[in-house]
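Exercise 7. Given the components listed, write out the predicted structure of the assembled complex. Treat all entries as one system.
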Amino acid sequence: MFFSKIWFFLIALAAAVALAVALLMPRPAARAHVDNEKQRLVVACTVIDILLGDDARNRVDLASAFASKLEIVTALDAASGAASIDEARMKQVRSVGAAVMEEMKGKRKPDFAVLIDRRGRVVARVALDENDFGDVAAGRPLVDDALAGYLRDDLWAHNGTLYLVTAAPVVKRETQAYAGAIILGHQVTNALAQRLVKSLDVDVGFYLGKDEVAGSKTLAVEATPLVDAIKRIGGGEINQDCLANKPIPITSGKDSYTALVARLPGEVSTRQAYYSVFIKRPAALGFAGTLDAVEQADLAPGSFPWILVGAGFVVMLGVGIALMFMESDRPLRRLTAEAVRLAKGETERLSEDAHPGKFGSIARSVNIHIDKLGREAKSAKKDMDQLLGPSPEGSLGTIDLLATALPAVRPGGSAPASSPPPSEFKFTNPATQPGLAAPPPRPTPSPRPGTPPPVAPARSAAPPPPPLGLPTPPQSFASAAPAAPALNLDDDILGGGGDAPELAEEAAGDDYFGQVFEQFVAMKKSCGEPTSGLTVEKFTEKLIRNRDDLMAKTGCRDVKFTVYVKDGKAALKATPVKDD
Amino acid sequence: MSLPLRVCVVVFGSLVAAGQVQAGPVSGKLDLPKELPPREPAVTKGFLDRVENPLATPRPVAVTPQMVVVLEQAEGAQKGSAPGQVLWELVGESFSRPVMIAAVGSEVVIKNVSKTARTLVALEDDKLVPSGPINPTGPKSFRVAEAKVYTIADKDAAHLRGTLVTVTSPFVATVDDAGRFELADVPEGNYKLRIFYKTGWLDGATDVVVAAKGKTEVNPKVPALTAPQKK
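Answer.
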């Protein structure tokens, strides 16, 4: 069993290691997955920044084209010379601006335009606050730069709306004099957001503080973490935000997202304008998640080492079965066979050395019990000898068997070779035992089976042979009592100490005891002993009392009395009868 | 101080000054350096850097709107009366002049002639400008108590900023696009003319002698306009 235990330990260890590996393996994968997602966010954020830059370049080109229109140049040049801007001029310039905007169909049409004269005054607005004019727009960096002759872009917030604005100076080609500037504005809309992330598999939202201005998807995102992330950024280059910032977890309803925020440049930067790129947070993989993620293709023979797994299983199973066979099944079968042989009487003891380990212990335990039974049998023999005296040879098979010597060597040792150990005791069936007969039922009138014939006189001190025809006590423990008292009848019977009248009555009517009496008297005579004063009543009364005592002590069903010669004198031996 | 009382004070001061010394205007033109400072980097930028237009060279930086001059009285000179009021217009996304000068004790009136309400504050002293928005066409006035340079700004519009220079001398003037300036009613005496540009006083001062009669012309030479230091 040692190697079986080692094997079981190894199997359990391998299973534990496999389980630990199975539980641990998804973690690096999950980390890598999260890192990949973060990297994807960074890439998407950077791409969006690039796309917004490209869009700004296109819008600057558009503004440049707008500003170069002759009607625009003419209108603004005329307005710049006026002391003030009146409504008529405003409407005239506005109509010119609206017409130019109409020409921009097919391109990215602006959502509004502002036409500014050389002094920085707003001459007209198109498509946004159209009736406002005459105010000075100079002062805003975008306008100042445009009036100074620069093309540039910016981001403005107006009434909660975010605008991508571009400005271009208006120049008279003939004189290369500045006539003013124009501003084009493009609203940041959901359509723009969707266009930006069309190929990125992310979502983007544009925010002014906690207010979402536009987004590629309608998400009720908790904006506080986004604003906090913006506040944490502090200084640094705005165009490096995508690389410098760390993704943050946010929630939208029950959904969890990972977001990366980046500030928007321009005027709106002072109003906490930013955009945020979202991706839905991947579900934690874990062991169960990994199993869920397994696809059928993963288990295909081409991609999974089924042969290796199967071979490993077969090897482990084979080794386990072999060890079980060698260390458990085979020894158990051997012990079982020997136990059967022991039960059949083909062997006297179990061979302790032939069985390894615990099976040897079982054999030793069985042998110890056999030895114990032997000692108890010997002790019982001594007790019976003390009670009944030595049984006549051949008369009591049981007594003969019990008279054997105890083994010389104790527990676990080999059985003595000379004398059979107590464990060699065999259960026998009295009915099948030749020479043995069940004791006659009591009282049974003569003739009855086993009625002893007249006993021949004994010779000298030699123990007489058992009376012929006299029923012999059974040899087995099952039928023989553990003790049989030897009766000393001389004093009681010859002394005439009779007592109970009911016993006398029973004795008077029992032929069995009469027969025993006659045999006893005959034996005494043959031994030359006096028989005067010996009466059948007292003799019978004595036997009955003795019988009853013996039955009470041993629980036997009946008691058989045998007449024999002991030390040249007639004696009587009582043998308990337990069953039929 | 109520308006009638203010008028009385101004009139009384003028009469006293006129009775003691004679005064005349001081005018002139700043001799600007040939090389003007380069345009500063954009305060804000969008996704792209600004680029010059391909049709014309960019306009030079307008330095004169950012200049003011002051005649400081030399030792022993008579003090003149302080100007009663300085008007500074808020024209939209900017002030009418980016730099304004006022004498200590004078009243500065900021008038919003734009269509947008503004809430202005002096960054150096948030109690200088009365709190509350200046509605379109509405004024906001205050008096300056010490010689200092204040930045008046609207916290809701980072680009909207103006510089208010306050001096102890009452003889102050702004400069037009061509660099001309004029100080009226300057009493006879010796003065030093100093120029404030953008954020600070330019180095050096021009001595000015104001005669008892006639107009005094002075054309101070402006040093190179590079990184003026605030003083």
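Discussion: Chain B touches chain A at residues 39, 42-53, 55-59, 61, 91-95, 114-116, 158-160 (CB under 8 Å). The first strand of chain B starts at residue 23 and ends at 29.
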